[in-house]
Structures are given as structure tokens and as C-alpha cells.
Amino acid sequence: MRIASMAEAGNGRASWYHQCASLLSIGVWTERVQGKGEDAEPLLVHHVPTGEGLAAVFDGAGGAGASIAHELPGGPRRSGAWVGARVARSATESWFRATVAGRGSGSGGPAGDAATLSRHMTRLLAPMRPDRPSRLVGGVRRELPTTMAAVRYRRAGSRVGCRVLWAGDSRAYLLSSGTGLQALTRDHTAETDALEQLVQDPPMTNVICADRAFRIDQSDTSFELPCVLVCATDGFFGYVDTPAHFERHLLRALQDARDTADWADLLCARVAEYTGDDASLTAVALGYRHFEDLRSAFARRADTVERDYWLGREHHGRPGFDEWRHRTWLAYRPDYERRMPPVAVAGSEGSSSQEGGTW
User: Fold this and answer.
1) The CATH number of 7-354 is which of 3.30.420.130, 3.60.40.10, 1.20.1560.10, 3.30.2000.10?
2) Which of 123, 186, 208, 305 has the fewest CB atoms below 10 angstroms from its CB?
3) Which candidate, 102, 76, 84, 101, places its Cα nearest to that of 167?
């Protein structure tokens, strides 16, 4: 197996990029307080022989997992959220490697589904539970809690088959030049409207954790090539004025970038300017000949989003802003939600959905 990746790092920020024939990928990671970041580093792996890959992000749930779970003599103290996100990342990567190797063809059959990942993750989380009891009490407390959003993809001719896996409020998206950003996951929260989620910041109803049952939801689908797959934690999309603003940041950075590495670096800098949280993101562009091909494909869409859905932060709170936000959300929402799993899928234990039996 060959796993392709490259990396660059800086103070409290890191970006990754890789480029080869018909595949470009980036990863972005920032921490709000240096040395305290609870997002795990984004996961980007690609199995060259089969053309199958995985992109994923993990956001340690700092409120529910704030108590200290790990401490080395003379070393930093790590919260349960910090540990949980990184154990979940390790579990997801090892699950991918084992199931690709086990299947040979990389078909992602039963061995590569949400139930298998959940069991594998539970086995790895259990021995990492802290020895000392948490000082937190009540229903909000969790041991080693984290969210996850992942897309496992496989190219097949002119299409790419995708298995989308998620828990909590991290999200996966399809980004297309025609219809823009489309959600592939539905947050595990009682509120399902993406704009209202920005206003309310509702609590999560399900997260990966070590002390009780959790679920990883699954949705199988496929897309025409070329396309871009994105996974992000709420540090990227939870501190903007509308869901369209997140797309604007993605596309503006893409249009301003000189190359793949610069796209990652610009996104890293942009999110640090507006977020109030740790933030991580992965993006995988499939079917584009090179970076300039990708950038030019989205030039018109970038202009459309800028013209129809963007207002700078200086407009926040001004008369008419709330009306503008709701009006533009009504226009943006149909395409944004077109591929989102139905509420019943995201709300039932061990749920999954399929679109045309594509995986």
C-alpha cells in the first residue's frame, strides 16, 4: 500500500497538500489557543493501486470532555476531547488500511461499513479511558468525546463512489462548479436548519465516546467526475453569517491561490481570521488535470457566490441584515440540501442510506 501525503507546519497552524494525476488534496488545521487545540490533524489517505481514498476530520468535544484524561511527567496535560479526537483518527486510518488490504479490490464492501468502523473505534477507545473519575457530572459529560466526518471514495470510470460516515456536527460536502456546496451529512442535533444552527448553536445528540453507546451514520452515493469532496469541523462553518459564506471562503481562497499548497495556506489564514474555535478541513479534488484546471472550473461559481450570497462582517447587525440573511438562505438552501440525508436516516440507530446502490 502507498499512502500519498505531504505536509507543512507553522505556529498553531498546519497545512497539507498532495497533487498527482487527476487528484489534488489539501488539509488544514488550526488551533484557537496554541498548544490547546482539540481538533485532531485532518486525515487524508489514498491507496494508489485501487484508486480508493479517505478524507476525514475529528473535533474533540471540549465541553463534554473538558476533564484531563492524559498527563505525562513534565509533559502537557491533555483533555478527554484531545485524546478522543486523536484515538478516533487513528482508529479510522487503521480501519481504512485494514479493509482496503482485506478486500484487495478496495471495494469497500461489508468490511468497510459504519458498523465495522464503530466496533473498531470502540475497541481502541476503551483502553484509553482515564483512570481518575471526571469532576464533570450530569448528562453532558462524556469520556473521550469527538465528532467525525469522513468520505471514503473510489473512482469507477467517469464517476466516483462515496461512502459518507459521520457522528456529531462535523460535516462532509460535495463541492461542484455548477451547484456549489452541497451537504452530504446531517448534524446530530435537534435543530436541522443550517442557518438556525448558526444562530442557536444547538447541543449535539450523538458523539463518538468511550463511556456509552454511540452511532456512526452512513450514506452511500456517487457523483460524476470531476468533483471536490470536503470535510470540515465546525470551526470552519460555524462562525460565518450564512452557510453560503463558508463556500465563499473556500472559493475565494481557491481563486486567489497560485497552486495547491497556496490554496491550503490561504484557507488556513482565512479561517484563523474569523473563527472562534479550532478548525480543520480536508478537500479532495478528483478528475481535474491540474490545479489551474480546478481553479478555472470554479471561477464562474466563485463570482456567483460573491455577487449573490456574500456580505462582509462590517454589515453584521446593520438594519436589513437579518432580512437579507434569511432571503439569501432561502435561495441558497435548495441546492445546499439537495444531497443531504433525510432526517429519518440521521436520527435512527445504526442508520444508512443509499442512492442507486453505488458503493
Assistant:
1) 3.60.40.10
2) 123
3) 84
